[in-house]
């Protein structure tokens, strides 16, 4: 057993969990706890409709956020980011002193801070977790990153029902930050994919482009690729600027904008006179390029 899944003591202290939200993440958690013979109570915005979906299920449906909190030892929030803080506020009055409230939503540190404040004000224990991977793909395909005070029993309970859990310490902001910057990369790649393939389709070479991108990360890990991509840019900035301007022209000739390429050209221009070869130093040199001028 890995260190991430070690120490399952304390899991027996949780007899029933409460789940707010019953989408992919909520259902993933519900299945895991039901299979472990731990009671599960859920609540969505339409509890009557949820009862119709679960007529013969061992899963109970709560009438309100407060009642869900009152009848469970652990509350897990799996809702849309826009409603996460409001859900915490509506649930907080039902929490017992010290009862953990685990927010699993993809929210920023600022929103996480709002949730923490609401739970602490009610006397509960605010915990933050993020789901790394696709909940739809199942328990074996995800890793839970969790932080917050007095988290040991919650971590143990999640591990005991089969989740891989990375405990990052007492700061609930840590998991939120990891999720936000992972999403910057993984969600931001969608724009890059579209910007790459749309003009390629116009030229009729999109299938060959996809084929030629196969194996891009086979020889190096993503971590190594990201570090190297920054560290070798100052040395090669001048040469690559010519190539990037040709890329922009090719895209424009197909009738498309290339906003990522525009920013990449600006990034290389910023590093023309840099001699840094450590990725953190390169990022420091790019502070002017990346900073928010509106603040």
From TrEMBL:
SUPFAM superfamilies: 6-phosphogluconate dehydrogenase C-terminal domain-like, NAD(P)-binding Rossmann-fold domains. One of its GO terms (molecular function) is oxidoreductase activity. Signal peptide: none annotated. Residues 16-152 form the 6-phosphogluconate dehydrogenase NADP-binding domain. Keywords: Oxidoreductase. This is 6-phosphogluconate dehydrogenase. Residues 200-270 form the Phosphogluconate dehydrogenase NAD-binding putative C-terminal domain. InterPro entries: 6-PGluconate_DH-like_C_sf, 6PGD_dom2, 6PGDH_NADP-bd, HIBADH-related, HIBADH-related_NP60_sf, NAD(P)-bd_dom_sf, Pgluconate_DH_NAD-bd_C. It holds the Pfam family NAD_binding_2.
